Amino acid sequence: MAGTDEGAVAAADDALYVLTAVLLTPANFPSVLGDDYPEACAALGLAPLADGYGLVLGQDGAGARWTVVIDDVSLVAVAIASWDCGMEYELSPDERTVVAALPGWPLAVAVAAPGVPAPHDPGPDGEDRPPLTPPDTTVWGPAQRRLGADEIARQWAMWRDQVDDSAFPAPESSAPEPPEGGDGGDEAAAGPERRAGKRQPRHSGIQRALAEARTYIDSPPPLGRVRSSFAPGDARTLRADGPGWSLVARTDDIAFVLLDDEPGEVLPVGRGPELPGLLAALDKMAVRPN
Question: Which pTM does this prediction carry?
Fold first, then answer.
C-alpha cells in the first residue's frame, strides 16, 4: 500500500484527506480481516457484494482516522496502480459512491495528512462501533499468520533462496511419502518476526493444512479462500487459507505453510509426488483478479 493524496471526500460530516486505499474484492482483500472474502466483509459490517468495494483511508480536518467504503472499485484500482508506478493520482470519489464511513483504520498507515493534528481515533459521539485498529504485530495469531503469508507472496524470491532443495527427502518409488517440510533461513525483511522452521518428517500441521486444502477441490470453500495471482513465466502465485493455516506457493515450485499453533514458523513443503497436482487443481478453482 502506498500513496499520499490531498484530495478530499465527504465522510462523517467532514472532509477526508486521503492517505491511501486498498481493494476489498473476492480476489484481493486485506487478509488481516479474515481467511476469505465474506469473513473480511463481515469484519467491517459489509455485505459480500460480488464486485467488492474500495477502502479509502484518511483523516478528517481534526486529524481523526476514518475508513470510507465506496462501491467504485475501478476508481480505487486505478489510484492504487498509479501510486504503485510512482505517479500522482487524486482519489476523489463521488459522494454517491460512499457506502459507509467507519472510524479508525484496519491497517497500519505510515503517513499522515499535512496541516491537521496527528492521526487519532475519532470520539465516540454518535458511533455504534469501536474504531478499527491494525493487528498487534507483537503477538501471533490468525491475522499475523496471514500477514506473514502476504509477506512471503510479496518477497517470494528472497524466501525461496533460503531453501536448500537437498533438504527435501527424495520420494520412495514404491510408497511415495506425502509432501514434507524443508529447511529455511531466518527472515531478512521487515514485517512480523518469523523464523523458518526445520524439516520435520510427516509434520502433522503441514499434513492437516494440505489435507484441508485438498477438500477445497471437491467442496469449494467460501469465496476468496483460494486466490491465484500473477507470477513470472507461466507460473501463478497461489494463496490458500483455512482455519489455523495459510499456504503460499508457486504453481511451478514449492510451497510454504504457516500455522497458528507454531508462532513465527515458516514451513517449506517440497514438490514431491503430490504437491504439483494439488497446486494445479487449486489454481483451476481459485479466484483471479479481473
Answer: 0.82
